[in-house]
Amino acid sequence: QQQVKQSPQSLIVQKGGISIINCAYENTAFDYFPWYQQFPGKGPALLIAIRPDVSEKKEGRFTISFNKSAKQFSLHIMDSQPGDSATYFCAARLRTYKYIFGTGTRLKVLA
Amino acid sequence: GAGVSQTPSNKVTEKGKYVELRCDPISGHTALYWYRQSLGQGPEFLIYFQGTGAADDSGLPNDRFFAVRPEGSVSTLKIQRTERGDSAVYLCASSPDHGRNTEAFFGQGTRLTVV
Fold first, then answer.
1. Cα separation of A74 and A37, whole Å?
2. Closest C-alpha among B9, B6, B11 to residue B23
3. pLDDT recorded at residue A109
């Protein structure tokens, strides 16, 4: 019940296209849903995050859509760029401190 | 530097040896976390400190793993009798405090290889 399921495992998008990554969860006690971006050899870096009382959050080219009733949330990257090529992790936080991560999506944006 | 600092960045050790991994959190952050990331996987929770005390160590895989944070700042993750299955990237993160609106900042990790 603490799992966060992430899809797809890998994604190839043309430059300028939209990248969409989906996550689903079961535990309604999760209180915060961040997305992390990770480059090879680096630690995860917070990209954007949302609380469950908000349905959408946009920061620049990055948007989180959150569907509380379906227990699903997604990351949309608009106008994808080659520099966006990285591994993306969704996460859900439990009890204000315990982050449960998805398995990651390896995004490749073709120039 | 302003970020979470982890040392060493890489550690190769022989099976059965003892290792210590160090984490320097962002100055002033009271919450500190250790995670383990295996190849191709997301980070998995190991332990959470609030100040000097381990508030939740439920993610430590067994009693060979132990972590301390004696002065509420630097933390050390200790692994005894290392096994090849312990090979992974060990990530440390810190946040200003636990709570609804705080975010966790991760270090670059220590890549541990047990041969």
1. 14
2. B6
3. 98
Q: Measured between beta carbons, which residues in chain A are less than 8 angstroms from residue B53?
A: none
- Cα B92 to its chain centre, rounded Å, is 4
Residues of chain A short of pLDDT 70, as ranges, are: 1
Q: Tell me the C-alpha distance between A47 and A62, whole Å.
A: 8
Confidence of residue B97 (pLDDT cuts 50, 70, 90): confident
Angstrom distance (rounded) from CA A78 to CA A62: 6
Q: Are A84 and A98 in contact (CB under 8 A)?
A: no
pLDDT of residue B109: 96
**To the nearest whole angstrom, how far is the Cα of B42 from the nearest Cα of chain A?**
5
pLDDT of residue A82: 97
Closest-CA distance, B111 to chain A, in angstroms, reads 9
Q: Backbone phi, then psi, for B58, in 5-degree steps?
A: -65, -15
Which residue is it, tokens 């996987």? B41
CB contact under 8 A, A104 and B35: no
Interchain CB contact of B43 with A (< 8 Å) = yes
User: Whose CA is closest to B22, among B113, B115, B107?
Assistant: B107
Q: Which two tokens stand for residue B4?
A: 């979470």
Cβ of B103 within 8 Å of Cβ of A43? The answer is no
Mutating which of A3, A96, A100, A105 best tests the B interface, going by the most B Cβ atoms within 10 A? Answer: A96
pLDDT for position A45: 94
